[in-house]
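Run folding on both entries below.
>entry_1
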Amino acid sequence: MPESPTLWSHLSVWLVLGGAFACALPLGHLLAAARYCTLGAVSDWWTLRDTHRLRMWAAAAGTAMLGTEALRLWAGLDPARTLVPYASPHFAWIRYVAGGFVFGIGMHLAGGCASRQLLRLGGGSLKAGLALLVAAFTAAWLIDAGAYRSWLAPLMNLGAIDLDGLGLADQRLTSFARLAWPGETTATLVAGTLGGGLLFAAHGRADSRLTTVEWRAGLALGIAVVAGWWLSGGSPGRAWQEDMAFLDAMPRGVGAQSYTFVAPLADLVACVRGRAPSFGLCGAAGLVAGSLLWHWRHGRLRVERHRNVRDLLRTVLGGALLAVGGVTALGCTVGQGVTGLSTLALGSMLATLATIAGAACAIRVEYALGSAA
């Protein structure tokens, strides 16, 4: 790459970035097979009271919580020090609520969240491709052109709470729990209780168990998030970060992280301009490739086009809102709803709940307007 011709001479780069792609490849295959879709999960629950896809999401989050705590104990991962500042002591709660709500509306208009768009793209959807393209340029404008910092950040920081001043090191639930129960085992107890509780909830009643495919998809997503943390923040990631620190120019997106699918769309624009691919971008590419493999193997590759101009404009607006919401909330339904939750960050929980609320409101409004018409 022009910015750093020696980048690819480091084995750590191939291990971490290649690992991001390699882990996402089977994940894309499994998620496509299970019809994993956060919008579908909210819609099924809101309109049909069917919780199967919602419980797949719970299985992923629970697995990620337990696995991330295991990495903290045995691999030296610090969930409070990550590239995306999930656990930041600067608790800008408006950011999580507003960003999540906007993202929820965007995923309804676009027909799925960022990860779902990648899976649809693998199945041949031109609509998903347009939504991702719009989201990519919008995210690049917000992040790289400084639009978020100049226009949105002042509003999103209103009412922010400085947790440092309250004697808290970060916004992880474990920090709050330690105020009442000091001790080294507190974090493990909190992670074990929440993670185990989510897995128990995913199990469901005897008459509504998850299918084998659904269990595999949910567990695979959680395991992939844990693998991402290990690749970028465990021993391979530490070697990668050290190697990158000695380059003339630090590549984009170096640090402890796991899967998220909005900010990496901005990385795609930067990559086209000559920058090196990031961990997140390699993960997104792996998800598309895995979905493509599943659709091809099962003869389900179909070109999906827009039905009319209104459908096209809906996709464009949805893609833009996915980027605005995802950048503001610091992640998507995977970036905050699984990866962020695995750090036990309070902001991730707010963003996830706000995303569900935004999608549910959008579904309800459209249903009401359709009924009135």
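>entry_2
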Amino acid sequence: MPHFRPGATVLVTLQSPREKFFGALLALAPHGLVFCGFPLDSFDDFALQIREGDSVRPSTVFFPMQRIERIELDQRSGDVPSWSERFLSKTGLHAAQFFCTEDAV
């Protein structure tokens, strides 16, 4: 799994309850995922707070493997921008750098 390496920007889909997260993979092991990011449903609010200069930070969390439904690399799909590209356009910041800073972890 060379693409799922620490620092990769990913989307994580969880089950029970169903949730989606956007952020950076910090560690992936048979027992779970260490991740730095935020819920995808708060993307616009989070981006607005960053753009307005609020000192918001992503959360560093552990998701046990039994909750993980899917992990996918954040990539552009044809004309549809990736979430990282959307993050850059809304905040002026590169997602990979934002999620993988010492302050974020």
